[in-house]
Amino acid sequence: MANSIIRREPFSEMISLREAMNRLFEDSWIRPGSFFLPAAFEGPAIDMYQTKDEVVVKASVPGLKPEEMDVSISGDVLTIKGESKHEEKVEQDQYIYQERRFGQFCRQLVLPVQVKSDKAQARYENGVLTLRLPKADEAKPKSLKIKVK
Predict the structure, then answer these.
(1) How far apart are the C-alpha atoms of 4 and 132, rounded to whole Å?
(2) pTM of whole model > 0.70?
(3) Is residue 3 part of a domain?
(4) Whole-number pLDDT of residue 34
(5) Count of domains in the chain?
(6) Residues 75 and 118 in one domain
(7) Residues 71 and 121 reside in one and the same domain
(8) Rounded CA gap, 136 and 116, in Å?
(9) Which of 144, 147, 43 is nearest to 103 (CA)?
(10) Is the torsion defined by CA of 16, 29, 121, 81 positive or negative?
(11) Are 31 and 71 within one domain?
(12) Which of 10, 15, 91, 96 has the most other CB atoms within 10 Å of its CB?
C-alpha cells in the first residue's frame, strides 16, 4: 500500500473580501430580501448574452403556460413576471418532500444596451422562454476607417 501526502491549502476554501462585498451588495440591492430566502423564491434562472445585433435572454420556467407569464421592457429594464399554480393537493398522505415552488415571481434585469422593444421576439419551448431583443442602432458597434496622411 502506497502512502501519499496531500498538501492542504486552507485559504483556497475562503472567499476573498472583494467577492464577499460583491455578494453582500448584490443580495441587498439587486435582490432585496433574498439574503434570507432560498434561491427558489428569486424567480427563474436566467441566461443573458449579446451578439453583434441582439441581446438574448433565456429564462427557465418549466410547467408554466405562455398566458401565465408577462414580459415587459421599460427603459433599460426587462421584467419577467409569472405565477406557478399548485396542481393537486394531497390530503390523505403526508409529504416526504415538496421542493417544487408555487406562487408568483418577478425577475427584473438591467439590459446592457438599448434595444428596440417593438421588434422583440419571444418563444417558449420545453420550459425555456427565449427572448430576442434587437439592439437599437445607436447601441450597435460601428467601425471607423482611419485615413493615413
Answers:
(1) 53
(2) no
(3) no
(4) 46
(5) 2
(6) yes
(7) yes
(8) 5
(9) 43
(10) positive
(11) no
(12) 15
